[in-house]
């Protein structure tokens, strides 16, 4: 049978757009609704169980209900389906049920491990749709790959998905299509976004790297300072400008959202549900399309910068920024959200592993305030700390002139290199 997904050393994720028929769209919606229902049912049973266990008096009805809920939670696939018979419909993917249960248990596991993600909450019904299934391989298959599982590529344009059947897709990288016989498919997510575009996300694994890993002889290292004035400044003095994608369309988006709000008020005055208000739904798609384009432009920019840094350097050092804390500054919150620091650092983390390079997040103390030449810290010895308006300064100890962001990038690199 070969190695499992967890045993394979290299993993990769790819998201491609699909074009389902009207019947397939109905199947996707039913599976999405069922997945959300199962997740919420398990959450409801756990919440009820928690409240019942707080009753200290040994009441027979309460004890019996606790035993019933515990039994259902041990085997929720049958426990929930026996009560709600519609979950046994043939159009529903059985692996969707298993993945909904797995995701709920994973949410609890993450809460117990991190304690910051919060306990699982009820999933609200939204315009977006999503459910997960899995790719299964028959026992007789000796080498599982992208063309012999329950989810498989039929050719360069069509993919087969359980219950949905044949789907046309677009956007699969050519390097994956060329190696499809050596790549295994794991979890598969079918989704629809707010603009009513459908996608399939594939979790892939292989015995060989998905990219060509090269190690340069020069062992180049670089430090980067992230800021809002410009996107980043590296330790070599290079500056990447901040594109400010959200700010560029803020006025257009605000106008579209005002129009959406007016249409919502009119529909409510006429006692029409927003789901059935055609003008409201049309304008909602306009707003969602503007937001999608901004998100795609930002994501493409971050991918280009992160890939370039990782491929051209053996060590990349960056400051570990806590965006959650920085967003409390209301004067900079919009700029920080627009620049996408956490997404960028996440890309550097997984791409370093993908390309066989090293990414080192560090937490240096006062990198903009410290002279990288002599180590003098502004704010000491009767000096004033630098403000955000001070973009260049001269060290009072060694008289060396600094560009604020370049100096910070050099300090970050020194912190990453020094053990």
From TrEMBL:
- What are the recorded Gene Ontology BP terms? DNA recombination; transposition
**In what residue span(s) does the Probable transposase IS891/IS1136/IS1341 domain sit?**
213-328
Keywords (alphabetical) are: DNA recombination, DNA-binding, Metal-binding, Transposition, Zinc
Q: Which residues form the Cas12f1-like TNB domain?
A: 341-412
Keyword Zinc in record: yes
Which GO molecular-function terms appear in the entry?
DNA binding; metal ion binding
Domain Transposase putative helix-turn-helix intervals: 13-51
InterPro entries linked to this entry: Cas12f1-like_TNB, Transposase, Transposase_put_HTH
Which Pfam family would be a valid example here? Cas12f1-like_TNB
Does the keyword rRNA processing feature in the UniProt annotation? no
Similarity comment: family membership: In the C-terminal section; belongs to the transposase 35 family.
Protein known as: Transposase, IS605 OrfB family
